[in-house]
Each structure stands twice: as C-alpha cells, then as structure tokens.
Amino acid sequence: MTVLNIVLSVVDIILAIAIIILFLVQEGNDRGIGVVAGGSSDSYYNKAKGRTLEEQLKTWTVICCVLFAIVSVVLYLSIAKAW
Contact at 8 Å (CB) between 14 and 68? Predict the structure, then answer.
C-alpha cells in the first residue's frame, strides 16, 4: 500500500465514525400524523430552523456523507489503478 492509500483509508474510517456519531446524536422526527392533517404553524422555531442545533447536525451529516462517498471512490480508484 502506498502512503496515499493509507491516508485515504484513515480519512475514510474517521468519516464513517463521524457519520455514525452524528446520526445517533440527532433527534427523531416525531411529527407523526400531524403533517398529514395539516398541523403546520409559523412559529419562531420554524423561522429560525437553520440556526438550531438539529439543523446544524443534519447539515454536518450530509457534508460528512458526501465527503465519505468522494473519499471512498478515490480510495477505490487509487487501489484499483495502483496510483
């Protein structure tokens, strides 16, 4: 294995662990049947949704997932092509 493969493997493992932790820390979506029945309201929470911890966790989860996918593909190509 080259140094590039080792570094990409370590980054891949760290991102996988980060995704698992971020996923487990997030709260569940417990709106239930209220969404179907039209139970929506314009509260302060809905207006400031992007600044809440829950939304930040979701954003970081998506970022980590995209990075994990990119690093995994690059790692596969580096092993398959023997860079």
Answer: no
